[in-house]
Amino acid sequence: MADITEVNANIDLMQLRYFVAVVDAGSISKASRLCNIAQPALSKRIANLEFAMRVPLLHRGHTGIRATEQGLLLYQAAQRVLHDMAKVIDQVHSAEDNPVGEVRVGCVNSLTRMIGPALARRVREAYPNVRLSFVAGQSGDLYRALCDGLLDLGLLVHDKEIGSLDIDLLLTEELFLVASPDLPGLPPEDVIAPEQLSGLPFVFPTARSFASGRYLLEYLRHRGIHLNIQAEIDGEAIRDLIAGSFGACILPASFVESDIASGRVCLKRLRDLPLRRDLALCSANDRPRTLAARVLARELKQMLTEELMRTAWRHVRIAG
């Protein structure tokens, strides 16, 4: 392993910015156009960076350019460095009544359509110099992105094993048995006995190992209920499998709200078995929130409170 004192000290932020652009673009020519720099000059910058790092950073093939294993490490680190530097610049130019800068917010898939558009409109109106970057994902992916510095804030399912994060519990969301009305063996009652779950086929997200999924299955097993899981799949595809009578799932109503309205799926409560999940607003505890991130977090919490007071969301309440 090279001694850091032997590495060329002339590596600058612009070199890192160009390197990230090349990896993102997958070619020198495309990156040169995006960065408004001549292709030979960009190639020389990348070559100087590889010389300074003393390892090959890019693999050049017929199908384009991709990062080597060492290059991927530098790419991830460079993203964090560039973002942190941008936050420093934004903070220098921010005043308490005029926050400036980008805030990257991650949100669990089930709430993205409810929260994303409303938050974007609210931020643009109240803080025109704040740039909102809003992404959806699984709680486990959002957690890792927060720890790696790729997100500033995350609204994710709370897990008691979460570490390295500042956690502010916001919402408690009820969970239901979600299934197609035509699923074979589905009881007709709106409230069913937990024991009846064992006779149904299930489809579950692959992220069961993180947050509420794992605890849900452990909780049911403790009650002597073992689910017959036929498949594991993430994203929108799980909605199609449920609506197509492939299997049932245990989910919040928010994830299938449009399918409920269209009649593709129905909800059933479990008798004497309250199921819920807690949603928390999180940020990494090893770096302070910028002013822009602080005001955006405040706006998000205020927006959620107002939405719930208007009863816009069913089966959701303020945590606590």
List the helices and strands and how they pair.
Blueprint: H1 13-25, H2 28-35, H3 39-53, E1 58-61, E2 64-67, H4 69-93, E3 101-108, H5 109-126, E4 130-137, H6 139-147, E5 153-157, E6 165-179, E7 191-192, E8 201-204, H7 212-222, E9 228-232, H8 237-243, E10 249-252, H9 257-262, E11 266-270, E12 276-284, H10 291-309, E13 316-318
Parallel strand pairs: 3-4, 3-5, 7-11, 8-9
Antiparallel strand pairs: 1-2, 5-12, 6-10, 6-11, 6-12, 6-13
Helix pairs in contact: 1-2, 1-3, 1-4, 5-10
Overall geometric form: globular
Given the structure, what is the number of helices? 10
Contiguous uncertain segments of 5+ residues: 1-8
In whole angstroms, the N-to-C terminal distance is 50 Å
Q: Structural class of the secondary structure composition?
A: alpha/beta
Radius of gyration: 24 Å
User: From the coordinates shown, what is the CATH architecture of the largest domain?
Assistant: 3-Layer(aba) Sandwich
- Helicity level, as a percent range? 40-55%
Mean pLDDT: 85
CATH superfamily of the largest domain: Periplasmic binding protein-like II
Give the percentage of residues in beta strands.
Answer: 15-25%
Number of E strands: 13
Q: What string gives the helices and strands in order?
A: HHHEEHEHEHEEEEHEHEHEEHE
Largest sheet: 9 strands, mixed
Task: Estimate nothing, just give the exact number of structural domains.
Answer: 3
CATH topology of the largest domain: D-Maltodextrin-Binding Protein, domain 2
CATH class of the largest domain: Alpha Beta
